[in-house]
Fold:
Amino acid sequence: MSAEGTTPASSTPNPSVKQRPIDTQVLIQEPLNEFIAANPSLAKIQNSYNILSGASSNQISSILSQPGVENLSEAELIATLKESILSEIDPNPDKVNEINRKTTQWYGGLEGKARSDWEILVARSAGTRTTPPPFEEYFETIVEQELPKWIRLLLRQRYTETEVEFGISQEEIREEYRITIDGTKVKVKRKRGRKK
Structure:
């Protein structure tokens, strides 16, 4: 009985209707995922849980057999296990985020320096017949020259090719350039039809 004295709705068997079970997990999964995604703390907990639940018995055994493991707190033990699991994943999501953050900073710095250099070229060309190209064209040639150097630097910092490919996800770069990484060989070409 509900609070008002009425009975809740109940199903009455109807022989003409086919019986079909309703999967309530499916109904709640999407709103639950949205709630978790909207709450950074819950998203972090879910991410850690998903990573830790993927640990193999060999990984756990390897961690637990390390000297001094008995002196670790629960949080330290979980962090060590998480680090061990992530080190075996390619691409490592933490490293992909790190590369993305570094590349965003690098790209912004490169654009700032290029703009400064271009403004100097414009000032020097005042009163002469030669004028530098528009900034966008000038900057595109700079990126095409500097991007391979940046990628090689990331590879020397012990990031994997896959991590670098996933980490460089900035639209400005991905939409304009085709990047090919093969070991230490890096090729960057402007995509055809992208001239402005």
